[in-house]
Design goal:
Blueprint: H1 2-17, H2 19-29, H3 44-63, H4 68-82
Helix pairs in contact: 1-2, 1-3
């Protein structure tokens, strides 16, 4: 699982570093207000390239213990949380979430 996470990280670095890939990835960064939907906003070609890379990685994960689908679900949930732009104050619930006020 750590190897898959590292592969996703390297893929993200490549999308920032290579001009052709950055042109696709900047759709993700175009949002003026970062929120949970930013974690799901990607250029369709970037999604396709990412899926191809992840399928290759998941085949290796299944051979090493079968964690491919679980990692993908965890990765997407983590991306949503990381982009949610939540703020927490001491002793208070997370501000900005519907139903927590």
């Amino acid at each position: 699982m750590i190897a898959l996470d590292f592969a996703v990280y390297l893929q993200h670095v490549m999308f920032h570093a290579l001009p052709l890939l950055w042109r696709l990835h900047r759709v993700h960064h175009a949002d003026a207000d970062i929120d949970v939907t930013t974690g799901a906003r990607f250029h369709p070609i970037e999604i396709l390239l990412s899926m191809l890379d992840q399928v290759r990685g998941h085949r290796g994960a299944r051979g090493a213990g079968g964690c491919g689908t679980g990692v993908r679900v965890l990765l997407n949930a983590t991306a949503m949380f990381n982009h949610a732009n939540l703020r927490a104050a001491r002793g208070r619930p997370i501000d900005g979430c519907a139903g927590l006020r």
